[in-house]
Amino acid sequence: MAGIFTIESILVFVLCYIIGSFPTAYLLVKAASGKDVTREGSGNVGTLNSFQVSKSKWVGVLVLLTDLFKGLLPVYIMLYVMNMPYSAAMLGACALILGHNYPVWLKFKGGRGLATGAGIFMIVNYYILAGWLVVWAAVFAFKRDVLVANTAATFSLPLIVVLINFLPWMVVGGGLNGFTVTYFTVFSLVITLIILLRHTEVFKKAEKKVS
Fold first, then answer.
1. What Cα–Cα distance (Å) separates residue 16 from each residue in 100, 155, 169?
2. SS3 letters across the chain
3. Residue 114 near residue 154, CB atoms below 8 Å
4. What is the pLDDT of residues 151-188, one digit of tens each?
5. How far apart are CA 41 and CA 102, in angstroms?
6. pLDDT tens, 73-91?
């Protein structure tokens, strides 16, 4: 892992954090309904709460697509247009999630990173996203609760990432500049852990209801 923290990668990290922290949901909900999404509903700055607060499916769709492309486009450009070293691009991917989940503009109160993470994994390794969708569909069919399905599928992400290590045909991006399975695994796990940190709130709220 030596040589990851170069001047280039640090600049990429800062720029990606700024891109990731763009407060999509906050601005769209504010424009559509005049409400502050951080103070309404669950307070989450993401697709589901944006839809519930604004009561507009179009706001929800716009938030989803914007947050998705906020992860997809920067990673695609870094890896396939700029041919940036894989480690630097993946460090930037981590920053995109950090920016979305903990935006400085909203006092570090952001979303849970699912849409942005989905955009990232579409480029990094679409099998991770496919695995997430399979688990989500299975849990939703049983529980009929979007939030529970989101959380369960997200907690399966580290297992999916590790599983890919044992299935070579699932490895994507072997020809990229500086790609190694180790870099892929470590950075993908970091991204999933950042997303998981925001999902622990679901369990905390459930515990409060029980008590």
1. 10, 25, 30
2. CCCCCCHHHHHHHHHHHHHHCCCHHHHHHHHHHCCCCCCCCCCCCCHHHHHHHHCCHHHHHHHHHHHHHHHHHHHHHHHHHCCCCHHHHHHHHHHHHHHHHCCHHHCCCCCCCHHHHHHHHHHHCHHHHHHHHHHHHHHHHHHCCHHHHHHHHHHCHHHHHHHHHCCHHHCCCCCCCCCCHHHHHHHHHHHHHHHHHHHHHHHHHHHHHHC
3. yes
4. 889 889 999 999 998 888 898 888 899 999 999 999 99
5. 18
6. 999 999 999 999 999 999 9
How far apart, in Å, do the first and last CA atoms of the chain sit? 45
187 Cβ neighbours under 8 A, 6+ residues apart:
87, 90, 91, 93, 94
Round to whole Å and give the CA distance between 42 and 60: 15
Predicted TM-score (pTM) of this structure: 0.90
Please, which residues have CB within 8 angstroms of residue 92's CB and are 6 or more apart in sequence?
A: 9, 12, 13, 15, 16, 74, 75, 78, 84
Structure tokens at 7: 């001047």
Give pLDDT tens digits for 7-62: 888 999 999 999 999 999 999 999 999 999 999 988 888 888 999 999 999 999 99
